[in-house]
């Protein structure tokens, strides 16, 4: 590892400036559970590491029925899954935030870091997509908002231009008869990168028998987490039953374009997308029904 | 036969200390972080070394240009294989595995050819490790790439690329014999063969025959502490090494031989060790830090990263195996044929001999043939791993046993008991058995509640497997006892303490001397401070070093009896020592405890210090057995363990908690090997998963409670009946889990690891 400068700004303005000055030679540091390993492994050569944990905007954390869920980019996972409001309103965020790494990692790791790291396997990203989250970005030219499904552009690559920082992810308020869930498959029971993962949400009608709309996202089966538009659309107007679930799972499998690697084969991953999508949809529907 | 279950000692036996569970002497320092490990060594002026490793699996080294690296400020010295003296082929004993000193040196630093990805080429010492690391990038090595060969079967074929031009097959009928050179060139370094009876006749007598093929992958011991060594070569030519090793004398011998200096000039200080499992019985770093220190006049330390541990040290063999067995309708095994081909890695010396000796070990088979091939491939040179070679062979034999029992409609434990091996029966290698607990362990398994309770639910299954190992020992252990004036003793050994052996050995001395365990201060010292002692391996320390301590204790009693005789003015032969009390036969009122007498040594001839060494060996044959319940998710292929019980014949459990710890640890390593562990090689021989993230050892969430049942059939060759317990525990798990998976989903898994992907594929192919 080569020498670099470490700075810890306390305002968003300073942070953006410090990032912009060094362009691609600056990197943000949130929990450090990805970036420190990558720096040590020689993946990046940087001049400056900008610690973003002392910036007020990035530490926002609020959750309510009326305003939705705001997760500042520096908020650690444990705060998310320990919040009783998040547990009540956004159980799918608990599903994913609580299985990243182990206890120690959850004390440092952030959803913001997970998203910016843009790994195809990032475990909080499918849920963010399923929950229609928006990413708030600040940069030298001001602030902008991007839907999470557009945030990641390739493995390890994202929308952020030089000097830009992720401020927060914002999940819209949940309506009645809405439910979401997340599952991941790993060979062990903890400490693994997803072989495949899946997040999904469903909005049921008042009878709770029909699906009004749905969002399905799958991970570790393509260059980025994939928002499965056709699978999602197939559920709009469909009955909330096994046949619809089967059809959506088959469509999700078509959206997957995995590779063979040490974590799984193409065949295994496509198979798992089917299994996980079905299981996740069953949980999401059951949550939407208030079961 | 006494049985110890969990915390409860059913039959404590006639001992005061043996069989109890005292707190370990090194415990407080270890849990408070005060114990010193190799990486803790800090010396004034110390330099840090880093190793350049081959990016190719098989290549000729054309040139090495270090000029830019040397020019980097902070770089102090570089060592390449040119710094080693020219070495002749000469064998060296590492306790668990034998080796050739020239090849050992070539594994430490490649000489002309690199033979695996990760093969060390040179090391650089600099003022800090970041500079050393940067300097590595400045070294320019030119290679001529050669075709690598990774698969054991392909490596054995006639037209396979050859790793070593002059390698010929050595034929052996005895694992440690010299063997005969067949003159056949290729990648097959050895064939070991055991034959008995007449195979054709045996199979013709059988009513049922099962034959299966099996493959396993390279796996690593996965010790937590990476290899580390610090060397200081002083101006008078003395070399001191602080290192993480299982055998300080082995490191001394190997380092001296590689450097071409007398052993007496080398002092090896074994630091506390963070696991070894056989993998720390050989040297990788010690000669490098030595030469770097000689060149710079400063101490030099090298500590490997985890990636280096995976890529540059010795895992155990991937294998291809075939097992064929026949049995009669009433369950008698009539013949067995076992074909084992083990990858040795880049240099000869796979543990196939261990597999050949043990695979059929639990069964009385009159007609058998075992062929074990030692094959070089372009992978890491294998090193010992807990019962070297034996878990693989059991993975080939035990599922065949299970299938035979299934086809015969017999209970798999009953089937094993029918074919059990008793005193006087011969092991596969031909050696006759002394009394051992083969059938006792099997009966304990069959009668255990776990084996007999109902297992309900879909996709759940129960499996059993046993494992046999002949623990040899006898490579040599020394012990010195110094009696202190307050009646305590200092017990000095050279046996690196991995599994609690300080205390297990101390308990044996305390039992003989009639003193409390707290009155023994056991220390592990360097190679200058104690007699020659072989490595901590082969499950031999509680037994061998224990025997050395017992012999030294007997000497202490003899000497102290002489002192008592002096005080009471009687003949030493009139002194009796019983229950820790010296009594005079002439006047039974003349009694003195060990403590009292210890306070009177100065007036009666001075300190009592007694040393002994022991090479008798006979750590003993042993059976271990495992019962496991699993649940398989047929949609994902994931196997979850529901319940696990392990059994072993410990001879006598000196410290039952330590025996249980070995049993649980062995089961857990086997569970990892069974379900997920493997070196995942890409096409060019890169280990793609060289981290604990992707080299998937079990975490605590992956394990059920591992219950333990200790069986005690005393070993006649040890005063307290001990058998070594460190290794046999790793033999049964893979086979037991494979058998359980079959019971759960009807699929016979014939390859390791039985990962979710592999199970899905097997389910698919089974349809
Ligand atoms: C042992 C271990 C286990 C793990 N297990 C999992 C797992 O199960 N699932 C999983 O998905 N991941 C896992 N990870 C990866 C990692 O923990 C997660 O991706 C985590 O969410 C990253 O968050 P962080 O705050 O640590 O990010 P950091 O490492 O601090 O940053 C990650 C990346 O995001 C950038 N970044 C951070 N904050 C900002 C910002 N505000 N604006 C712009 N860029 C920013 C950084 O520059 C860097 O490129 C594991 C890591 C470890 C070490």
How would you characterize the overall build of this protein?
The complex is a heterodimer of chains A (291) and B (767). With 291 residues, chain A is α+β, with helices and mostly antiparallel strands. Chain A contains 11 helices and 14 strands. Chain A has helices at residues 12-22, 35-40, 77-82, 84-89, 91-97, 103-106, 111-117, 125-130, 229-235, 242-255, 266-288; strands spanning 5-7, 26-29, 48-51, 61-64, 68-72, 134-139, 142-147, 152-154, 157-158, 165-171, 178-185, 196-204, 211-219, 226-227. In chain A, the strands form 4 sheets. In chain A, strands 4-5-10-6-7 form a 5-stranded antiparallel sheet. The radius of gyration of chain A is 19 Å and the shape is globular. Chain B is an alpha+beta fold and 767 residues long. In chain B, 27% of the residues lie in helices and 27% in strands. In chain B, helix 15 packs parallel to helix 16 (541-568). The relative contact order of chain B is 0.13. The complex binds flavin-adenine dinucleotide (FAD).
Structural class of chain A: alpha+beta
CATH fold annotation of one domain in chain B: Aldehyde Oxidoreductase, domain 4
Low-confidence sequence ranges of chain A: none
Rg measurement of chain B, Å: 27 Å
Largest sheet geometry of chain A: 5 strands, antiparallel
**Residues in β-strands, percent of chain A:** 15-25%
Brief account:
The complex is a heterodimer of chains A (291) and B (767). With 291 residues, chain A is of the alpha+beta class. Chain A contains 11 helices and 14 strands.
């Amino acid at each position: 590892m080569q020498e670099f400068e470490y700075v810890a700004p306390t305002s968003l303005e300073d942070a953006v400036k410090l990032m912009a000055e060094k362009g691609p030679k600056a990197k943000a540091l949130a929990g450090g559970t990805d970036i420190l390993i990558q720096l040590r492994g020689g993946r990046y050569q940087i001049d400056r590491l900008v610690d973003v944990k002392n910036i007020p905007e990035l530490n926002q954390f609020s959750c309510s029925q009326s305003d939705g869920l705001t997760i500042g980019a520096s908020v650690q996972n444990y705060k998310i899954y320990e919040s009783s409001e998040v547990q009540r309103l956004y159980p799918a965020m608990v599903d994913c935030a609580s299985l990243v790494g182990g206890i120690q990692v959850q004390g440092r790791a952030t959803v913001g870091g997970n998203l910016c790291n843009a790994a195809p396997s990032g475990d909080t990203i499918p849920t963010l997509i399923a929950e229609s989250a928006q990413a708030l970005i600040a940069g030298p030219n001001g602030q902008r908002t991007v839907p999470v499904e557009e945030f990641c552009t390739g493995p390890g690559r994202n929308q952020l231009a030089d000097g830009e920082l992720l401020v927060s992810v914002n999940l819209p308020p949940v309506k009645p008869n809405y439910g979401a869930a997340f599952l991941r498959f790993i060979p062990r029971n903890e400490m693994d990168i997803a072989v495949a993962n899946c997040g999904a949400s469903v909005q049921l009608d008042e009878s709770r028998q029909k699906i009004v709309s749905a969002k399905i996202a799958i991970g570790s089966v393509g260059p980025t987490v994939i928002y499965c538009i056709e699978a999602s659309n197939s559920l709009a107007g469909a009955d909330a039953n096994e046949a619809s679930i089967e059809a959506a799972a088959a469509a999700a499998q078509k959206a997957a374009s995995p590779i063979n690697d040490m974590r799984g084969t193409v065949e295994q991953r496509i198979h798992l997308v089917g299994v996980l999508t079905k299981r996740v949809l069953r949980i999401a529907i059951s949550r939407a029904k208030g079961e | 036969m006494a049985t110890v279950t969990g915390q409860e000692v059913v039959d404590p036996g006639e001992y005061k200390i043996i069989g109890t569970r005292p707190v370990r002497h090194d415990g407080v320092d270890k849990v408070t972080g005060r114990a010193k490990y190799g990486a803790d060594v800090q010396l004034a002026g110390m330099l840090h070394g880093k190793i350049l490793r081959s990016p190719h699996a098989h290549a000729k080294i054309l040139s090495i240009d270090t000029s830019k690296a040397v020019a980097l400020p902070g770089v102090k010295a570089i060592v390449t294989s040119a710094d080693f003296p020219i070495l002749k082929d000469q064998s060296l004993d590492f306790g668990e595995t034998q080796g050739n000193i020239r090849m050992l040196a070539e594994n430490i630093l490649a000489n002309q050819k690199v033979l695996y990805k990760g093969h060390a080429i040179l090391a650089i010492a600099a003022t800090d490790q970041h500079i050393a690391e940067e300097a590595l990038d400045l070294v320019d090595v030119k290679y001529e790439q050669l075709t690598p060969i990774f698969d054991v079967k392909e490596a054995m074929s006639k037209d396979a690329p050859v790793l070593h031009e002059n390698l010929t097959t050595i034929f052996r009928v005895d694992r440690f014999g010299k063997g005969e050179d067949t003159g056949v060139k290729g990648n097959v370094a050895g064939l070991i063969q055991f034959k008995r009876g007449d195979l054709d006749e045996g199979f013709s007598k059988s009513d049922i025959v099962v034959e299966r093929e099996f493959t396993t992958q390279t796996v690593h011991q996965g010790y937590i502490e990476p290899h580390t060594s610090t060397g200081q070569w002083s101006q008078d030519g003395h070399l001191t090494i602080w290192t993480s090793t299982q055998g300080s004398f082995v490191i001394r011998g190997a380092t001296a031989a590689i450097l071409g200096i007398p052993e007496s000039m080398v002092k090896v200080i074994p630091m506390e060790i963070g696991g070894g499992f056989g993998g720390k019985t050989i040297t990788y770093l010690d000669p490098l830090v030595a030469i770097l220190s000689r060149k710079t006049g400063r101490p030099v330390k090298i500590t490997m990263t985890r990636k280096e541990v995976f890529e540059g040290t010795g895992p155990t063999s991937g294998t291809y195996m075939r097992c064929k067995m026949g049995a009669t309708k009433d369950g008698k095994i009539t013949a067995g044929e076992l074909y084992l081909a083990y990858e040795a890695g880049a240099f000869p010396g796979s543990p196939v001999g261990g597999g050949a000796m043990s695979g059929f070990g639990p069964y009385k088979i009159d007609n058998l043939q075992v062929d074990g091939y030692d094959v070089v491939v372009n992978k890491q040179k294998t090193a010992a791993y807990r019962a070297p070679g034996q878990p693989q062979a059991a993975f080939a034999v035990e599922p065949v046993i299970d299938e035979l029992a299934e086809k015969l409609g017999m209970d798999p434990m009953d089937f094993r008991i029918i074919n059990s091996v008793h005193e006087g029966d011969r092991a596969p290698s031909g050696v006759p058995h002394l009394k051992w607990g083969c059938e006792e362990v099997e009966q304990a398994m069959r009668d255990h509640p776990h084996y007999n309770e109902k297992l309900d639910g879909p996709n759940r299954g129960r499996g059993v497997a046993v494992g046999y190992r002949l623990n040899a020992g006898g490579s040599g252990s020394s012990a010195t006892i110094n009696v202190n004036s307050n009646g305590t003793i200092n017990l000095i050994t050279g046996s690196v303490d991995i599994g609690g052996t300080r205390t297990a050995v101390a308990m044996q001395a305390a039992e003989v001397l009639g003193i409390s365990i707290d009155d023994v201060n056991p220390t592990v010292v360097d190679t200058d401070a104690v007699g020659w002692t072989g490595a901590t391996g082969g499950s031999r320390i509680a037994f061998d070093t224990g025997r050395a301590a017992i012999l030294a204790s007997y000497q202490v009693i003899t000497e102290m009896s002489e002192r008592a005789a002096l005080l009471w003015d009687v003949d030493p032969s009139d002194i009796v020592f019983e229950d820790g009390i010296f009594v005079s036969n002439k006047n039974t009122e003349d009694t003195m405890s060990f403590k009292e007498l210890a306070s009177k040594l100065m007036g009666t001839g001075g300190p009592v210090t007694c040393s002994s060494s022991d090479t008798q060996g006979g750590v003993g044959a042993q059976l271990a057995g495992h019962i496991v319940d699993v649940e398989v998710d047929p949609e994902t292929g994931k196997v979850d363990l529901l319940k696990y019980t392990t059994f072993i014949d410990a001879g006598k459990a000196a410290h039952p908690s330590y025996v249980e710890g070995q049993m649980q640890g062995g089961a857990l390593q086997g569970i990892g090997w069974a379900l997920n562990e493997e070196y995942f090689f890409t096409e060019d021989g890169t280990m793609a998963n060289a981290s604990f993230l992707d080299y998937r050892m079990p975490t605590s969430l992956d394990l059920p409670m591992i219950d333990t049942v200790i069986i005690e059939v005393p070993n006649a060759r040890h005063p307290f009946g001990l058998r070594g317990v460190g290794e046999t525990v790793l033999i049964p798990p893979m086979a037991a889990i494979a058998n359980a998976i079959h019971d759960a989903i009807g699929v016979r898994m014939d390859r390791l690891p039985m990962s979710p992907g592999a199970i899905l594929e097997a389910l698919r192919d089974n349809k």
